[in-house]
Each structure stands twice: as structure tokens, then as C-alpha cells.
Amino acid sequence: MKRNTQGAVLCALLSLAAAAGAQNATVSYIEGDPDLRNGSGAVSPLDYDSKLRTGDSVLTGKSEQVELAQGADTTIKIKPNTVFTIREVDTGAGKEQVLTTAVGAVSMRFGKLSGKEPRVGTVGTVAGIRGTELTVYAGPDGSALFVVESGLVSVGAAGATVELAKD
CA-CA distance, 20 to 114, in Å (whole number)? Predict the structure, then answer.
């Protein structure tokens, strides 16, 4: 019985540690009337100071923009006509949060990093960030463009990886 209790406590602690690794994002600026699609697919108007969790998506129209804050040093600017999702992927070594631009454009600024580097991507790519500022453009055909303003980005797709620096 004691062994089962210890196992349950260990599982609970591991679950809390995994949840702490995935940061929520908070809406810090809204222009227009963008929508929030939650992880179960329900769509509602996005409000200032809303918290986005894993599985949530921001949907912007032609005259809408959203800015998110994640932690103290990360800013995410979602441009018009964009679908942006906070998703989770299983890497084999555990689950990681990926900030995904399905279509449209998103600019991100990552300040001083502590711990695990964040992941960003599109439907067909995943990129690792190292103290960076970048814009991700995702085309409706699955194409992707990463524009690095500062830092270094390691982009992987179709089994190949390339390192991108400023310019």
C-alpha cells in the first residue's frame, strides 16, 4: 500500500512539473474583433487579458491584430489574416509547447532565456529559438518563411535542419 501511495505522489509531481513547463500566454493588446478557438473547437470573441492555454488558437481577420505576453520576456504579435495556435508535441523525451502559425504572419521576441529553448513553427516546420526576434510567415499551401531579426533559429522540416541568423 505504501508503494502505491508513493507512486501516486510521484505521478502527481511529474504532472505538475510538466504543466509548469508549458507557459500560458496573456492577451496584452487587441485591435479589431479577433476570435479565440479553444482546444475543444468552440469559438468566442477574444478579450483583453484573456489567458491562452495549450490547444487554444487566435483567429484574426483582415483588420485585426493581437499581442500576447508569455512570461516576462516574450512578446508575440499576431498580424491580420492569421491563425496562431499554442500546441503541444510529444518529442519522445516528453511534451513540448510549440507556438504555431498555421497561416498568416506572427512576429515574436524572446528575451533572456532560462531553461529550455522555446519552439515555434508552421504546419510543416518546427524551429528552435536561441535568444531571438523573428517573424514567421505561413502560406495556405504549407510554405513557410522565417525572417530572423536577431539571434539564431534552427529550422527543421522534412528530415533536414538549417541554422538561420540575422539577414
Answer: 13
